[in-house]
Amino acid sequence: MSKYVASIPLGDIDRIRIYINSGKLPLRQIVAQEAPDLAITGNFWLYGSYQPTCPIKVDGKVLATDAYHYPALIWDTGPDISMGIVPPGGACGKMNYIANSAGLYQGKPETMYCNPDVRGRRGRTGWGFCGGALAFIAFPDGSDGMEPEELRDYVQGLGWSDCIMGDGGRKVNYYNRSTGDMVQGRDPSQNLILVYKRKRAPSEPDDSDKEDKPMSTKYTVCLDPGHGPDTVNGSPDGSYKEREFTWDMYTRIRPLLERHGVNVICTRTEDTKPSLTARCEVSNRAGADLFVSLHSNAEGGSGWGTARGLLVYTSSGPMTAKRNVAATAIVNRAHEAEVLLHGSGVAHQIEYTVLAKTDAPAVLIEYGFHTNMEDVDLLKNSSYRDKLAEATAMGVCDFLGIAWAVESGGDDTDTPAADWAAEAWQKAKSNGVMDGTRPTDPITRQELAVVLNRLNLI
Ligand SMILES: [Zn+2]
């Protein structure tokens, strides 16, 4: 039976919000954009109008009411969340509530009111309380489908005191950052509950990106040369094999990092191909500070394609998360080295195992497309590989706060700003308006948008 259950103590909650999915976005995209710790389908909505049908209030605005009393999740910001009753008309002192078909209220089973069209044994979601903690459950569609009452009885068996059945059927959308679970329904949810956990103090253990280490501690970076001996990925003309490239890149990056005092570990040997989960375990056991997976990209289809450039994947936003700080550092160094980027150079993919199941901040670098003739010529070139390896190691050192030591009198790429701009440049860096790299480069339109946004001008 595939089911997904989560419970979050109220003390761990920073905030809870209802996300109105007016763009009809798939869950993966919502997670990438909004970066919640947990997301789950909200309440019923009408196919025709795309409007919710049960009581819901979002940030002080009532979006739907009904003529009955509804048990609901009710809160102002999130840590204060409780089960309560929303009266007919929806008047309620709190900023947010969400109701649907209630199954349990204060330990007692409720008669579950729902229309025949939402009955049947189908995928279900539920939200409520168990042992005083906020609790969530999701059953995907398929053989494990349930009638509403079966869901109620099931969670009562788990010890839940309160349960509201959310929307289900083809709209079971559920994500849990700490377990890496992502269940995406065939249809989007019109609204979702997003939970954000409290940021932990540095002294507390952290279950996501690691906290800063004291300067005296040696950093450990786990390099993951993608694939292995029997992997066939390569260029359409057979002149390039991804598995050889990834191993070769590992052998080039490793000494650069070690020269800077970094302890480097590797997920495999040249002649082995461990599972993706096993690769994560190597990193997790070592308590790595950063996980870097090395790959080259492929466009769909069997022949040559047009897609080009370097792209670094992380599991999800926000861009201030350590994994994205690391990805941005690597991309900036690659850009400085005049490596062509694919799009902005950073993208998110929550479903990559090595990004989701690593404890350390994790990035996956696609150095270029081996399905593109120009890219593959570069990827086969030894001095280009050196350039990629150096940009990677420099970005990793930037992320770890290690000053890059030029080996033999080469150029220092970290050019200071010109005198006339020095003061403004310093201000922009120290206020976080700009990241302090590439002082003399032209600015792209998306970089300009980010700057305007940081200045609250848009
Ligand atoms: Zn690959």
> What is the count of helical runs?
10
Q: Strand pairing plus helix content: what structural class?
A: alpha+beta
Q: Give the strand order of the largest sheet, numbering strands 1, 2, ... along the chain.
A: 1-12-11-13-9-10
Number of strands: 22
Tally the structural domains. 3
Radius of gyration, whole Å:
25 Å
Mean pLDDT: 88
Q: Tell me, what's the shape?
A: globular
Question: Could you give a quick summary of the protein structure above?
Answer:
The protein is of the alpha+beta class and 458 residues long. It has three domains: 4-197, no CATH class; 220-400, Aminopeptidase (3-Layer(aba) Sandwich); 419-454, no CATH class.
Describe the structure.
The chain is an alpha+beta fold and 458 residues long. It folds into three domains: 194 residues, no CATH class; 181 residues, Zn-dependent exopeptidases (Aminopeptidase); 36 residues, no CATH class. It has a six-stranded antiparallel β-sheet, covered by helices on one side. Strands 18-17-19-22-20-21 form a six-stranded mixed β-sheet, sandwiched between helices. A hairpin with a 2-residue loop joins strand 11 and strand 12. The chain is globular. About 5% of the residues have low confidence. Zinc ion binds next to loops.
SSE arrangement:
Layout: E1 4-8, E2 13-20, H1 27-34, E3 38-41, E4 56-58, E5 61-64, E6 70-75, E7 82-86, E8 96-99, E9 101-105, E10 108-109, E11 124-130, E12 133-139, H2 148-157, E13 160-165, E14 174-176, E15 181-183, E16 191-197, E17 220-225, H3 242-259, E18 263-266, H4 276-286, E19 290-297, E20 310-314, H5 322-336, E21 341-348, H6 353-356, E22 362-369, H7 373-379, H8 382-400, H9 422-430, H10 445-454
Helix pairs in contact: 3-8, 5-8
The structure holds zinc ion.
Zinc ion binds at residues 226-227, 233, 242, 295.
